[in-house]
Known about the structure:
CATH class of the largest domain: Mainly Beta
Number of strands: 14
CATH architecture of the largest domain: Beta Barrel
Structural class: mainly beta
Largest sheet: 5 strands, antiparallel
Amino acid sequence: MHSPSDFRRGLRIIVDGEPYYVVEFQHFKMGRGKANIRTKLKHIKTGAVVEKVFSSNDSFKPPDMEAKKMQYMYDSGNEFNFMDTQTFEQVAIPADNLGNAKWYLIENEEYKVLFLDNEALSLDLPASVILEVTSTEPSVKGDTVSNITKPATLSTGLEVKVPPFIKEGDRVKVDTRTGAYLERAN
C-alpha cells in the first residue's frame, strides 16, 4: 500500500479502480486543517491526465503490473519493437506511451517492459544512460567560465546542454528522469 507521503514522479497507483501514475504532486495545507496533496495523474492505458486532491491519510494499492526484460530491436515510426530474449516473442509499444523514454533507447540493449493485462504499456528505464555525441559546436578558446554550456545532439536524436570541452564522438552520461547531462563517460 502507498500513502500520499510516498508520492514521487512515476509512482504507479490504483485510483477509483483504474491504473494511474503520478506526473506531478504538491503538498499543501489550508489553515488548521490536515495536509492535502494536489496531484496530476496520467492513466496508464489511455494516457488521459486528471487532477485529483488526496488527504494525507488516504492509501493506494499498486497496479498489478508485470515487468519483463526485453531487448529493444527497432522503431517503426510510431511504434517501438521489443523482443523477449527467452521466447523470441516480439511486442510493439506505441510512441505515445513511451513519451520521452524514446530518446534513451539504444538498439540491442535490454530494458524492463511493463505489462498490464498482458498488454505492453511502457518501460522502466535505468536512472542514466550513456550516449554518443553526434554533433556539437567546437569549443571557443577562452571559454573557461564554469557555467557555460553548448547544445549537443546525441546518437538517439536527443539534444542536451553540455560543457564546452565535450566534442563529437565523446560518450556522455545523461539522466533519464530530467534529460540533463551528468558527466563524460569513458
